[in-house]
């Protein structure tokens, strides 16, 4: 399903990019060399192309995000109905997953669904999406580790006690 939707997504947008006439500067002012930015370099009216890009990418981004939120909601309601022995750990895992999904899809949805152009916001989101999100994912899961939590508590206590001594 993932491969099919990805191929459909590319198949709908690639013909537009290939057929655009480019005659001016060929420098994209962003980290990403993405179709919305490339279409702005064309020396023709790209309103229709941009509408197709926003509709297609927005639909895919929003549908994936909503499917994930619905599935996590179903998992959460199932956890609440079951016994309380594994509830805490399951809820903790679910919270970490939802956090990562929101951090991942937030900038993506904002970039592709928002129909206006703001270069400074787009650049910030591109950096966030490319650098911050991949760093946060392992950080979130590392901080869930018991040994790491214990080490962080010891470090915090050592820092607090060292400040009290000075």
From TrEMBL:
<dbReference type="Pfam" id="PF13853">
    <property type="entry name" value="7tm_4"/>
</dbReference>
<keyword id="KW-0297">G-protein coupled receptor</keyword>
<feature type="transmembrane region" description="Helical">
    <location>
        <begin position="47"/>
        <end position="74"/>
    </location>
</feature>
<dbReference type="GO" id="GO:0005886">
    <property type="term" value="C:plasma membrane"/>
</dbReference>
<keyword id="KW-0472">Membrane</keyword>
<feature type="signal peptide">
    <location>
        <begin position="1"/>
        <end position="19"/>
    </location>
</feature>
<keyword id="KW-0675">Receptor</keyword>
<feature type="transmembrane region" description="Helical">
    <location>
        <begin position="94"/>
        <end position="114"/>
    </location>
</feature>
<keyword id="KW-0807">Transducer</keyword>
<feature type="transmembrane region" description="Helical">
    <location>
        <begin position="126"/>
        <end position="143"/>
    </location>
</feature>
<keyword id="KW-0732">Signal</keyword>
<dbReference type="GO" id="GO:0004930">
    <property type="term" value="F:G protein-coupled receptor activity"/>
</dbReference>
<keyword id="KW-1133">Transmembrane helix</keyword>
<protein>
    <submittedName>
        <fullName>Olfactory receptor 4K17</fullName>
    </submittedName>
</protein>
<dbReference type="InterPro" id="IPR017452">
    <property type="entry name" value="GPCR_Rhodpsn_7TM"/>
</dbReference>
<dbReference type="GO" id="GO:0004984">
    <property type="term" value="F:olfactory receptor activity"/>
</dbReference>
<keyword id="KW-0812">Transmembrane</keyword>
<dbReference type="InterPro" id="IPR050427">
    <property type="entry name" value="Olfactory_Receptors"/>
</dbReference>
<feature type="domain" description="G-protein coupled receptors family 1 profile">
    <location>
        <begin position="1"/>
        <end position="141"/>
    </location>
</feature>
<dbReference type="InterPro" id="IPR000725">
    <property type="entry name" value="Olfact_rcpt"/>
</dbReference>
């Amino acid at each position: 399903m993932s491969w099919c939707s990805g191929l459909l997504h590319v198949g709908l947008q690639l013909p537009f990019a290939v057929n655009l006439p480019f005659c001016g500067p060929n420098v994209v002012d962003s980290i990403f060399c993405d179709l919305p930015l490339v279409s702005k370099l064309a020396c023709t009216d790209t309103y229709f192309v941009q509408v197709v890009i926003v509709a297609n990418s927005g639909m895919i981004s929003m549908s994936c995000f909503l499917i994930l939120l619905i599935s996590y909601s179903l998992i959460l309601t199932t956890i609440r109905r079951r016994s309380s022995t594994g509830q805490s750990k399951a809820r903790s895992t679910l919270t970490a997953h939802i956090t990562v999904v929101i951090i991942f899809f937030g900038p993506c949805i904002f970039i592709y669904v928002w129909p206006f152009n703001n270069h400074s916001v787009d650049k910030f989101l591109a950096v966030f999406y490319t650098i911050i999100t991949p760093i946060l994912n392992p950080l979130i899961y590392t901080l869930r580790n018991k040994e790491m939590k214990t080490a962080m508590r010891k470090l915090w206590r050592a820092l607090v006690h060292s400040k009290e001594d000075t």
